[in-house]
Structures are given as structure tokens and as C-alpha cells.
Amino acid sequence: MASPTLATVATQFLQRPGLAKGTLKAYQSTLTPLLSGYGSWPINLLERSEVVEYLQSLSHLAYTTRRKHQATVQALFNFAVEKGYLKANPIARLKQPKPDPQQGEHTSDDTIRYLNESQLKCLYRAVDLDTRMKAIISLLHRSGARISEVLQLNLDDVDFEEQRFQVLGKGNKQRWCFFSQDTAKALSEYIHDGRYPRSTALFTAQQPISLETSRISYRRIHQCWERLIVPYPDLKGTRLHDLRHTFATERVGLMGIEELRALMGHESIQTTLRYQKVTSRRAESVAKQALNTLL
């Protein structure tokens, strides 16, 4: 009997009874990049080296997101073993990724990376002629949502009247995110001039040959980001995730820490308090610079 394709097994994996709606949506979003590259492959032809190479290609994502991807792929292959499609999980005992200090992935307060005013001006100049990226950048910066949450949005999820949208965050918890008038304008321009129709997704892409429209992938957005920031030395090494940190550091002191925690979707208040410490250190640095100028 011919081995089923990875897409076939993934469909069976997602159709298991008892999966919560939130869990199903998270699984679908996580597996989409894998299926776009290997969905048509017979599952028994996928070897450890190919799967590891795919997981390593996700280096543009935060390490916590990469861990989620790997755990989901592990679960998919374990399901394939249970169904008898595979004799063994090809990535059995593969270690989970750890924070990479060279990429700014730390747990200490000193390593929270955010964009300063000058960098933000550069960034908005960089995306000014790309309506899709301009809308994504503005939405990330003004709402504090994660890139994974934004890319899961459908067009109908955005409430322009209230300037808000609801996301499914970590732990399958829903929360409201809000955006400003300039973001509403950027979104409207993208929807009118840059969005490919025939898809329910908010942010779409079109295949160059088949012209098929689909939800845009993490990888495609990362490639666009890297291309756009190349001409700007001040943006070297910046990441899409830094916009979430920027949102938080801009709002510390302007609202209560509990309100900021709710907007960010943090489970622990200690996670939110990191931004308060970073902002305090930034204020101290500015004060010292001012004093040195006066001396």
C-alpha cells in the first residue's frame, strides 16, 4: 500500500475528535509552513535531516515559537506512528531549541530589544511603498500583537469601527487588541490596493505561476522584512518581534501595569514588569546624557 502524503496525515491529525477550537486553529497555523513545502511528499520519505532542516529554517521566529512548531511536528509524527504509517518518529529525541544570545533571545531584562524613535522613522520610510508590509508593521507596532497572531487574522476579524481585533494567544487565551487611526488608514489602503482577494485571510499572498491566493506565510513575511531593512544600517539586526517590545516600552507609565499585562496577553505579571525596568533604565541613561551635556 502506498504511503499517504504528509498533507493527508496532517488532515487526519487535525480531524481527531475532541480537539478544542483554539487548539485546532493553533495547530493549523503552525503546520501550514511545513505543509507548503512538504505536504505532497509521502510521509515515509521524510527523513530526519529534512525535518531538522525545516525546523532550522524557522530561525527568524522567536525561540518560544520555534519550540511550539517543533512540539506540534513531533505530535504529528507520533500520530503517524500510532496509525501505522511510520515505524518510528524521524525526529524522536530531538532536543528543543534554546534561546540564542546572538539573536537577542534572553530572559533577562537587559536584553529586551525595542526600536527607538529614529529606528521607527527609518522603518516607516522603508515600508512606505509596500502597502502590505506597511499595514503589518503598523498593526504590530500599534497593537502589541505577536506576528503569529496577526498572520492568523481573517479579514472579518478586524473591527474598523471600534479599531480592534481579537486574537488567540498563548495558552489558547483570547484577548482584544486595539489599533490607532494611522493603522486603520494603513490597513484600509492595503485592503483596497494591495490585498489579493479570494481568501478569508487578512494578509494574503499570490503564487507566481498558479496565481492561487492564500494566507501569507511567516517565511514570506520574514523575507520581505529582510529585504526592506537592508538599505537602512540603523535597522540592522532588528526583528519583527521587536515591535511588540516597542509597543510595551512606549506604554509603560501611560497606563497601569495590569492593563498593559492584559493588552500583551502575559500570563505572569513578572513578564510585564520587565518593560517597567527597561523603561526606568532608559530614563536613567537619558538623564545621565543630559547631565553630561550640561557639564
From TrEMBL:
<feature type="domain" description="Tyr recombinase">
    <location>
        <begin position="110"/>
        <end position="288"/>
    </location>
</feature>
<dbReference type="GO" id="GO:0005737">
    <property type="term" value="C:cytoplasm"/>
</dbReference>
<dbReference type="InterPro" id="IPR010998">
    <property type="entry name" value="Integrase_recombinase_N"/>
</dbReference>
<keyword id="KW-0233">DNA recombination</keyword>
<dbReference type="InterPro" id="IPR053876">
    <property type="entry name" value="Phage_int_M"/>
</dbReference>
<keyword id="KW-0963">Cytoplasm</keyword>
<keyword id="KW-0238">DNA-binding</keyword>
<dbReference type="Pfam" id="PF00589">
    <property type="entry name" value="Phage_integrase"/>
</dbReference>
<protein>
    <submittedName>
        <fullName>Recombinase XerC</fullName>
    </submittedName>
</protein>
<keyword id="KW-0132">Cell division</keyword>
<dbReference type="Pfam" id="PF22022">
    <property type="entry name" value="Phage_int_M"/>
</dbReference>
<dbReference type="InterPro" id="IPR044068">
    <property type="entry name" value="CB"/>
</dbReference>
<dbReference type="GO" id="GO:0015074">
    <property type="term" value="P:DNA integration"/>
</dbReference>
<dbReference type="InterPro" id="IPR011010">
    <property type="entry name" value="DNA_brk_join_enz"/>
</dbReference>
<dbReference type="InterPro" id="IPR002104">
    <property type="entry name" value="Integrase_catalytic"/>
</dbReference>
<dbReference type="GO" id="GO:0007059">
    <property type="term" value="P:chromosome segregation"/>
</dbReference>
<keyword id="KW-0131">Cell cycle</keyword>
<keyword id="KW-0229">DNA integration</keyword>
<keyword id="KW-0159">Chromosome partition</keyword>
<dbReference type="GO" id="GO:0006310">
    <property type="term" value="P:DNA recombination"/>
</dbReference>
<dbReference type="InterPro" id="IPR013762">
    <property type="entry name" value="Integrase-like_cat_sf"/>
</dbReference>
<dbReference type="InterPro" id="IPR050090">
    <property type="entry name" value="Tyrosine_recombinase_XerCD"/>
</dbReference>
<dbReference type="GO" id="GO:0051301">
    <property type="term" value="P:cell division"/>
</dbReference>
<dbReference type="GO" id="GO:0003677">
    <property type="term" value="F:DNA binding"/>
</dbReference>
<feature type="domain" description="Core-binding (CB)">
    <location>
        <begin position="4"/>
        <end position="81"/>
    </location>
</feature>
